[in-house]
Write a structure and sequence with these properties.
- The chain has 425 residues and is an alpha+beta fold.
- It folds into four domains: 92 residues, Rossmann fold (3-Layer(aba) Sandwich); 55 residues, ATP-grasp fold, A domain (Dna Ligase, domain 1), CATH 3.30.1490.20; 128 residues, ATP-grasp fold, B domain (D-amino Acid Aminotransferase, Chain A, domain 1, 2-Layer Sandwich), CATH 3.30.470.20; 99 residues, Phosphoribosylglycinamide synthetase, C-terminal domain (Glycinamide Ribonucleotide Synthetase, Chain A, domain 4).
- It is 31% helix and 29% strand.
- The chain contains 14 helices and 23 strands.
- Strands 10, 11, 14, 15, 16, 17, 19, 22 and 23 form a nine-stranded antiparallel β-sheet that branches. Strands 3-2-1-4-5 form a five-stranded parallel β-sheet, with helices on both faces.
- Helix 6 packs across helix 9 and helix 7 runs antiparallel to helix 8.
- It is globular and about 60 Å long.
- The protein binds adenosine monophosphate (AMP) and glycine.
- Glycine binds next to loops.
Length: 425
């Protein structure tokens, strides 16, 4: 079959790598893709915000199945429009993608269906929000309701910070996304990510991961989209995963179906492993980036078959097989990230890195210019390694990183430190 994958980051390179390996895949198109995805299929310069253009492309090229990587096209209703045009598409509808698109929607769903999450209130009035903060105390968490490209959450340890966050968000600092805020209790514990593949009624686990959000070693400095990740996240024991399925994922599917918005696609649950059990921090309606770059290299089963089964509502017939190995990815970013970065610097040595055992280099923000690979964004490469242990995966990943010659880039040198320490006892 012919497939169109939407997106252009490291997540999409990993997806393209998996999908193109399927015996069911004849032709893979990626829109807009990157130089990494171009090794797996044909990049096409489609404007994916123009749903009519995407539909026309599918008709002309005989695309049988569309896989949507990022959240923006999901929240914009691309899957709805494709389905209305009789084109099979993987990902939640616009109504179902509210689980990522609106934090207030998700919190209300949790309250209605008894899903464990931090206590919260919703506000559109800044003074009322501040009065609540004063009565609640700190630490407290202020969240913009809508999509805010990673800038919508403030964990405040002082009243001043909490109130400033309210003023910034309700005052329009994040545009429409902050017009409503959710204020919630601060949860203590270790964070881990849990992924489930959903067909509207049935969910199956799609692996676990932990990422490193802070830009510098030792989890210091500003938050980023993720500087590295590893999978599996051993803190999410089999027992905790069962609880997450029973107490969080399954009631969410039931709740979404009851609301007339059955959830088909990936549910990416950000969990806090609190003393009383897993608590939902937030949902994403897609795979994580860079978490996908460590989930998919461990998957033995055919990804495309599983995604099709989710679309066809037959996930109850699917069971996924995984490699025993651990995967770890190191994000190489342009100096200055997560602030402004220079584009266009030369990157050499990717092929040399890939000759090492168990190494995959996924492209995130690169561009091909006259046969050279140059940096074209903040997060640029994801150097992924498989290993028998997390320690081995980490060692291999950094050996590969050291073969990449890119003076204008940097990476954290301690990805996986918590898990490596745990493993070494
Ligand atoms: P989110 O964008 O919702 O994932 O939030 C970004 C980060 O803020 C999370 O990964 C957590 O580290 C932190 N965070 C969000 N909500 C809470 C909470 N209720 N308690 C503690 N930390 C939180
Ligand atoms: N790595 C975090 C995310 O994909 O949202």
């Amino acid at each position: 079959m012919n497939i169109l994958l939407i997106g252009s980051g490291g997540r999409e390179h990993a997806l393209a790598w998996s999908l193109s390996a399927s015996a069911l895949c004849d032709k893979l198109f990626i829109a807009p893709g990157n130089p990494g995805t171009a090794q797996c299929g044909d990049n096409v310069a489609l404007d994916v915000t123009d749903h009519r253009a995407v539909i026309d492309f599918c008709r002309v090229m005989g695309v049988d199945f569309v896989v949507v990587g990022p959240e923006a096209p999901l929240v914009a209703g691309l899957v709805d429009d494709l389905k209305a045009a009789d084109i099979k598409a993987f990902g939640p509808t616009k109504a179902a993608a509210q689980l990522e698109g609106s934090k207030a929607f998700t919190k209300d769903l949790c309250a209605e269906f008894g899903i464990p999450t931090a206590t919260y209130r919703r506000f559109t009035d800044a003074e009322a929000a501040k009065a609540y903060i004063r009565s609640f105390g700190v630490p407290i968490v202020v969240k913009a309701d809508g999509l805010a490209a990673g800038k919508g959450v403030v964990v405040a340890t002082s009243f001043e910070d909490a109130e400033a966050a309210v003023d910034m968000m309700i005052g329009g600092g994040l545009g429409q996304a902050g017009a409503e805020v959710v204020i919630e209790a601060f949860l203590e514990g270790e964070e881990a990510s849990f992924f489930a593949l959903c067909d509207g009624r049935t969910a199956i686990p799609l692996g676990t991961a932990q990422d490193h959000k802070r830009v510098f070693d030792g989890d210091q400095g500003p938050n980023t989209g993720g500087m590295g990740a590893y999978s599996p996240a051993t803190v999410l024991t089999a027992e905790l995963q069962d609880r997450a399925m029973r107490e969080i994922i399954e009631p969410t599917l039931a709740g979404m179906a009851a609301r007339g918005a059955p959830y088909t696609g990936i549910l990416y649950a950000g969990l806090m492993l609190a003393a009383e059990g897993p608590q939902l921090i937030e949902y994403n309606a897609r795979l994580g980036d860079p978490e996908t770059q460590v989930l998919l290299p461990r998957l033995k089963s055919d990804l495309l078959t599983a995604l099709l089964a989710a679309c066809d509502g037959v996930l109850n017939t699917v069971s996924l097989q995984w490699k025993d190995e651990t995967a770890l990815t190191v994000v190489m970013a342009a100096k200055g990230y997560p602030g402004p970065v220079e584009k266009g610097s030369d990157i050499r040595g990717i092929a040399a890195a890939e000759t090492l055992p168990g190494i995959l280099v996924f492209h995130a923000g690169t561009k091909q210019v006259e046969g050279r690979i140059v940096a074209n964004g903040g997060r640029v490469l994801n150097v992924t390694a498989l290993g028998a242990t997390i320690g081995e995966a980490q060692k291999r990943a950094y050996e590969a990183v050291d073969r990449i010659d890119w003076p204008e880039g940097f990476c954290r040198r301690d990805i996986g430190w918590r898990a490596v320490e745990r493993e070494q006892g």
